[in-house]
Design brief:
Elements (H helix, E strand, L loop, with lengths): L2 E19 L5 E20 L4 E4 L11 H12 L6 E6 L10 H16 L6 H9 L5 H6 L2 E5 L4 E4 L7 E5 L7 H6 L12 H10 L2 H6 L2 E2 L2 H7 L1 H12 L5 E3 L6 E5 L2 H11 L7 E4 L3 H5 L2 E4 L3
Parallel strand pairs: 1-8, 3-4
Antiparallel strand pairs: 1-2, 1-12, 2-4, 2-5, 5-6, 7-10, 7-11, 9-10
Bound molecules: adenosine-5'-triphosphate.
Adenosine-5'-triphosphate binds next to helix 1 and helix 2.
Length: 297
């Protein structure tokens, strides 16, 4: 029986700018995305019918789950893909700005491609993934990329030097459409400097990358959920110079160039934020090794 186990990495946005609202209602973005080692685990196995098993009560337990939508998409395109049981161990907080659903979706596409030797290239997988969500193409490629368009156009960037993060996800979620809907671009004077972050990546200069961190969506999310703004200030006061909201929020992360600093900071804030998560950048090797196949001899 064929089986695949896939590690589905979360992402953070090191920098996120919104350029304009398009005629189709979507916003044109420009953002540097980075995969981190916080991950869900997905096991795919052949079964009498499509079926999802998950330990999370916060995600759809049926075919509406993004992992199952990816199964259906592949079965519609490739008749040789049989019914599959998907076992999803959820570690990435849900509705957090960490692309949890998108990365599960990408993991299923990658897993099925390998299990059934479909031979789809990264570009072909990204094109399929874009049908299910703007962040899916990044989650297929990663680990460091510039995303433009509505987030689905991906250009690889030089590997990010090792960075270390402490993430805090408040107990509430935020709706991405609401955050974009509340955005008043004409009232915003200062945009984050995406190019400075890209220059830092080209130079391999970790501090320049951290100094360039910025997220235009903070203006909107902070208005809708002032507690996210408070969280950011409190995390900065706890002793970190580089603190940012990821995506449309509400997760806020503190970033460090040294692992020891991140560990120390984690110890300091854990009593205040028991759900805090210590994480780090994912490199290319980790990404290449994320699919393990069994029973395919
Ligand atoms: P992004 O950063 O891409 O905007 P997010 O981290 O903010 O995503 P998700 O965790 O992907 O948000 O959850 C968004 C919605 O998708 C939730 O309402 C959730 O119920 C739904 N969803 C469907 N499938 C999944 C899945 N496998 N994992 C997480 N959420 C899922």
């Amino acid at each position: 029986m064929k089986q695949a186990k896939i590690t589905a990495y979360a992402k953070i946005n090191l920098v996120l700018d919104v350029l304009r609202k398009r005629e189709d209602g979507y916003h044109e973005v420009s953002m540097v995305m980075q995969a981190i080692d916080l991950a869900d685990t997905i096991v795919l196995e052949e079964a009498p019918r499509n079926w999802l098993i998950t330990d999370s009560k916060y995600i759809p337990p049926n075919m509406n789950n993004l992992a199952m939508k990816a199964v259906t998409l592949m079965q519609n395109h490739f008749k040789q893909v049989p019914p599959l049981q998907v076992t999803l161990q959820k570690r990435i907080p849900v509705a957090a700005g960490l692309a949890g659903g998108s990365t599960d979706c990408a993991a299923v596409l990658l897993g099925i491609n390998r299990m059934y030797g479909l031979g789809l290239s990264q570009t072909e997988l990204e094109r399929l993934g874009a049908e299910l969500g703007s962040d899916v193409p990044f989650c297929i490629g990663g680990p460091t990329a510039l995303a433009t368009g509505r987030g689905e156009k991906i250009e690889p960037l030089p590997p990010c030097p090792p960075l270390f993060f402490v993430l805090v996800k408040p107990s509430f979620g935020v709706s991405t459409p609401k955050v974009y809907g509340n955005l008043r671009l004409d009232q915003i004077r200062r945009h984050p400097d995406v190019q400075a972050c890209i220059d830092g990546l080209h130079k391999g200069n970790a501090l320049q990358i951290l100094d360039a961190m910025g997220n235009l969506l903070e203006y909107s999310t902070f208005q809708l959920q002032p507690n996210v703004k408070k969280l950011k200030h409190s995390m900065a006061e706890a002793g970190c110079a580089h603190v940012l909201m990821s995506g449309s929020g509400p997760t806020v992360f503190a970033a460090f160039t040294e692992q020891q600093q991140a560990q120390q900071y984690y110890k300091t804030i854990k009593p205040v934020y028991p759900g805090a998560i210590l994480s780090r950048t994912v490199n290319k090797t980790m990404l290449e090794e994320r699919v393990e196949l069994y029973g395919n001899e």
